[in-house]
Amino acid sequence: MPELSGLRITTPEAQELESKRAELAELEAVIAEREWQLTNLRAELQAFERKYLAEVGVRYAELDELKATLAQSLAERYPDDARQQEAARHAKTRAEETRATAGTETPGAHKIFQATPELKRLYREVARRIHPDLTSDAADRAKRQLLMAEANRAYETGDEAALSRVFAAYECAPETVRGDGAGADLIRTIRRISQIKNRLGDIEREAHQLLRSDLYKLGVRFEEESKRGRDLFTEMIERVAEKIAITKAAIERAVGGAARR
User: Fold this and answer.
1) Residue closest to 144 by CA, chosen among 187, 173, 184
2) Domain boundary assignment for the chain
3) Residues 37-48: pLDDT tens digits?
4) CB of 229 within 8 A of CB of 48?
């Protein structure tokens, strides 16, 4: 009989596990790069937004406040003029929107949070299955604490989709698979692959939204003009300052005219 002592017998599960581990290694390299790209894109947009709001946005907020004041003065001066009344309401609404966008809301000017029935149901289910107090395992408890923090943020912002993803992230986590051997390892690897693919889809959708956003397009415009030697920040600030001066003068005329009546 032939010598079989050096023969390696590989089960179908072990073969599939080896293949999936290779696939997982490739995906882990891909997602590391995609996560960095998305994080970098977010950081660049946030930095540009902060600069824009600090240097230009607050001035537009001031301008719209002045326009609302002027419109209100004219509405009071001509109480029977329907167009003046509508213009005052429109100017007030625009001023509130600009103030909110610029991050200069007046104290207490915020929306009241109201959870939908589906959001409440989802949160209760997440808490019932994931709450950290439901386990005595230290590693599992730490993971649950992170997921509950995500769940709380999703609930507070009314994001049902995010809350559902938190629930799925725990239910389908590789760590929930018990047991040893190729079969259990295969299931854990497949779940990890599924997690990464789902995350790659999320990354692609978020990146697509960011790249199509008005903020990104504005940032690209500023960057392109900067390469041509133009400082759009300074130009915009000067234009808004001029409009602010003109509007203040118009308010003084309107108030003065009303006082002489």
Assistant:
1) 173
2) 12-105+112-260
3) 888 888 889 889
4) no
